[in-house]
Design goal:
about 500 residues, alpha/beta, FAD/NAD(P)-binding domain, five-stranded parallel beta sheet, 14 helices, globular, binds 3-acetylpyridine adenine dinucleotide
């Protein structure tokens, strides 16, 4: 077992953890480490390798502002290209030298005596420990797959594949397949499988609203222009951003203004499906925007295929050979694809982080509801900043924009801690509560509250704790500077200024 002490430990090497590492390097901070259980950078864009995996935010906006990519091959990027982009950016900034892959953090606990986070992690089957003066939680909300709790699922004798843990060796050709779920992942998987499987049953609990996806490949001349015409890519990015912010206004303040979007979705159904009964079955019964608005041109035509059935009767149980629905129908299958989303408000990661009072994030959030200050700091968890924490999610535009806002806040936090010699920084309960009261106030007329749907944006109390309401530039303004007045702080004494114990952690070149 090895022990180390670092100034900052970042858990997660996806878009947010990598962005944090780059910003720290640019700030001249060297004493940090990124810990990730995977084998390279990318997080959710490394792990989601299901067929058809792609982004539904246009390529020019779904990238770091400090690493624009003029070479995007399509107007919407697919997973392999985003994964390559993320790793290329990591290479360019030399982040690998700060990163431990194949490393799973199993426990992180605040130590009030040393003013440090005590971390336990496993690497190559061995246990290690580390202490860190600051902890950055960059695991993202979409990292822990949610397996549905359906009677009999453990007894199924065939294969079960979760969308986020795809079995790339499994050959779907000619198979009888069941797909559970009709969210953002399922609508990308189902059209790909529909072309190769023998038969597919798609189990829909709630029909989603889906607009057409105006994806196309870029011409060589366009890529040339993105690279050589000054300001062109930034202008396109700005145009996409501005359009999306208008949608945010509708979702937050005037859901009725989204009627034209609903009309687009209805036209998409009409165009994609001939059978009137099937059209009715796929038409949602909630306001557009209440759940994520999806984008697809081939979802409806796939449901209309002869080898595909949409099943709307609820799932009663799973048997060793298939699925039984509430109406008593038995459908035998070889493989079940579960595209049932992620543990967002109940992530097992929350159990592993223990704050100053000896309680885990899960215990605190179970009792008080999921909440943080500016989506980042949680009262009672000193010196810990979450990236894409509570109230930062979006239903309409690029999460990378929110991540970059939080990175500004992180860098200014580290600057402040260094300049003032702070050993302990804990957001005050009153500042955190006031922030969340404002968020809930902004949400009250929004489509997520009034739209008549259940969604993963809600915690177990039914409150929308995942989303940022309104304009993202408001969040950018609120996170420009670290506002120390919102925090209870303690200055370092001699015991806090102890030198690092053993320098860089195991596996990182000195
Ligand atoms: O998961 P979801 P996802 N029995 O939670 C159903 C991002 N993403 O992986 O709606 C039967 O949206 C559930 O039904 P219902 C994006 O932010 C982005 O698809 O709850 N069904 C729903 O249909 C997205 O929002 C991209 O009634 C069950 C589905 O499973 C997020 O990831 C691409 C069930 C889950 O949908 C999650 O998307 C892909 C049960 N027991 C994903 N449990 C981009 O393009 C759940 N369901 C950027």
């Amino acid at each position: 077992m090895t022990t180390h002490d670092v100034e900052i430990a970042i858990i997660g090497a996806g878009f947010s953890g990598l962005g944090a590492a780059i910003k720290l390097i640019q700030e001249g901070v060297d004493d940090f480490v990124v810990l990730d259980r995977g084998r390279d950078f990318g997080g959710t864009w490394r792990d989601n390798v299901y067929p058809g995996a792609a982004c539904d935010v246009p390529s020019h906006l779904y990238s770091y502002s400090f690493a624009l990519n003029p070479q995007w091959s399509r107007s919407y990027s697919h997973q392999p290209e985003i994964h390559r982009y993320i790793n290329a950016v990591a290479d360019e900034h030399g982040v690998a030298g700060h990163t431990l892959f194949g490393t799973e953090v199993t426990h992180a606990e605040w130590d009030e005596d040393t003013h440090r986070w005590n971390l336990r992690y496993t690497r190559d089957g061995e246990q290690h420990t580390m202490t860190a003066r600051n902890l950055v939680g960059a695991v993202g909300p979409l990292c822990e797959p949610n397996l549905p709790d359906i009677d009999g699922i453990d007894e199924f004798g065939g294969t079960i594949v979760h969308s986020a843990r795809w079995d790339t060796d499994y050959d779907f050709a000619g198979k009888r397949v069941a797909v559970i779920g009709t969210g953002a992942s399922a609508i990308q998987i189902v059209p790909q499988l529909g072309r190769v499987v023998g038969h597919m049953d798609v189990y829909q609990r709630t029909a989603p609203w889906i607009i057409p996806r105006n994806e196309r490949p870029y011409l060589g001349v366009e890529n040339w222009a993105f690279k050589h015409v000054p300001g062109l890519q930034a202008a396109i990015r700005g145009g996409i951003y501005t359009f999306n912010e208008a949608v945010a206004a509708g979702m937050t303040y005037a859901p009725k203004a989204l009627k034209p979007v609903e009309a687009l979705c209805r036209a998409n159904i009409f165009r994609g499906i001939r059978d009137p009964e099937l059209r009715k079955a796929v038409t949602p019964a909630f306001a557009v925007g209440c759940k994520r608005i999806l984008k697809s041109n081939d979802w409806y035509p796939t449901l209309d295929r002869d080898n595909v059935d949409l099943v709307t009767s609820g799932i009663d149980r799973i048997t060793p050979t298939g699925i039984v629905t509430a109406d008593g129908t038995v459908r035998d299958v070889d493989v079940i694809v579960v595209a049932t989303g992620f543990h967002v408000t109940d992530s097992p990661v929350f159990d592993t982080i223990v704050g100053a009072a000896g309680e885990s994030l899960a215990q605190v959030w179970d009792r008080e509801g999921m909440a943080a200050y500016k989506g980042a700091f949680v009262h009672g968890f000193p010196n810990m900043m979450l990236l894409i924490g509570p109230s930062t999610g979006l239903g309409h535009t690029s999460m990378v924009y929110m991540i970059e806002s939080q990175l500004n806040y992180l860098v200014d936090y580290i600057r402040t801690v260094r300049d003032r010699g702070l050993a302990r920084v804990d957001v005050s309960k009153s500042a955190q509560d006031a922030f969340n009261t404002d968020v809930q106030h902004s949400l009250r007329r929004s489509v997520w509250v009034t739209g008549g749907c259940a969604s993963w944006y809600q915690d177990h109390n039914g409150n929308i704790t995942v989303l940022w309401p309104g304009f993202t530039f408001v969040f950018r303004n609120q996170t420009r500077r670290f506002d120390i007045a919102a925090y209870d702080v303690a200055v370092a004494d001699e015991s806090d200024t102890t030198e690092s114990v053993t320098g860089k952690p195991v596996g990182i070149d000195a």
